[in-house]
Design a protein that fits this description.
mainly alpha, globular, EC 2.1.1.-, methyltransferase activity, transmembrane helix, Prepilin_IV_endopep_pep, methyltransferase
Length: about 270
């Protein structure tokens, strides 16, 4: 890809990262930290203003960049809601997407994976804070992701093959997590099942082996984290640990660094 195009893509991605980071920095603080007890069935608290505690209903917390750029304060107390560290992190994450996935990708393909990075960052932090993957974020991501990847497929020589694998990955991973949920519902959240198809879509775009690798890494990272907390006496076997962040991190690791499965089999 010509250097001028790479520079233009880098600038566009940096600007997108700044806007997405500002949006994330105003959405994430609305989800208060929630560490449920093993027998707690009350569910996580709804999005609330971190200053006055007023509940913020959808669509007031909807991650719509233009609205968040215009209005930055709580509608009840008027105080500003923002987390600067999140803004910087999301912007850096998008630049990392370009750096790791390669600037030789097609622009629409980069846009699709930039969307995955933005939504993945939001869902990772929200699930870690409240142990919940909001339907408003998970389910609305499917049509956007499908449209972006379908558009990317039209601009690439092997686009039809990639998009077909992506659809297979989406369906296959959704069914796999649904089966796990049916077998052991206490160990698998329904939100994880609903998000699995989205991860399978992006992993399958690379290869069906990537779907397997991303799933394996999710369980590996989760188990390692849980065992580490138990060894450090920061948790017990009954401590609730959200699995969604590890699903996203495992998928993102394979997408950015590459699928290790061919190397292991070779």
């Amino acid at each position: 890809m010509p250097s001028a195009t790479v520079l233009a893509l880098t600038i566009c991605l940096a600007l997108l990262g700044a806007v997405a980071g500002m949006t994330a920095g105003r959405v994430i603080p609305l989800f208060p930290r929630h560490d449920p007890e093993p027998d707690d069935e009350s569910g996580p608290p709804p999005p609330t203003c971190p200053h006055c505690g007023a509940e913020v209903p959808w669509p007031r917390w909807a991650p719509l960049p233009l609205r968040f750029l215009v209005k930055t304060g709580c509608q009840d107390c008027g105080r500003r809601v923002h987390a600067p560290a999140v803004t910087i992190w999301v912007a850096a994450l998008l630049l990392g997407t370009l750096a790791f996935t390669g600037a030789d990708r097609f622009p629409v393909e980069i846009a699709a994976f930039a969307f995955f990075a933005i939504w993945g960052a939001l869902l990772t932090v929200i699930d870690a804070r409240v142990h919940r993957l909001p339907n408003r974020l998970v389910l609305t991501s499917y049509p956007v992701a499908l449209v972006l990847l379908a558009a990317a497929a039209l601009t690439m020589p092997d686009g039809t093959t990639r998009f077909t694998m992506a659809l297979i990955g989406m369906a296959g991973l959704a069914v796999f997590y649904w089966v796990l949920w049916v077998i052991y519902p206490a160990g698998m959240g329904w939100g994880d099942v609903k998000m699995a198809g989205l991860l399978g879509l992006f992993l399958g775009w690379g290869s069906l082996g990537s779907v397997v690798s991303g799933t394996f890494l999710a369980f590996l990272f989760s188990a390692t984290f849980g065992i580490t907390l138990i060894v450090l006496r920061r948790a017990t076997r009954k401590t609730a640990i959200p699995f969604g962040p590890f699903m996203i991190i495992g998928a993102f690791a394979v997408i950015t660094v590459g699928d290790p499965l061919p190397l292991l089999l070779g």
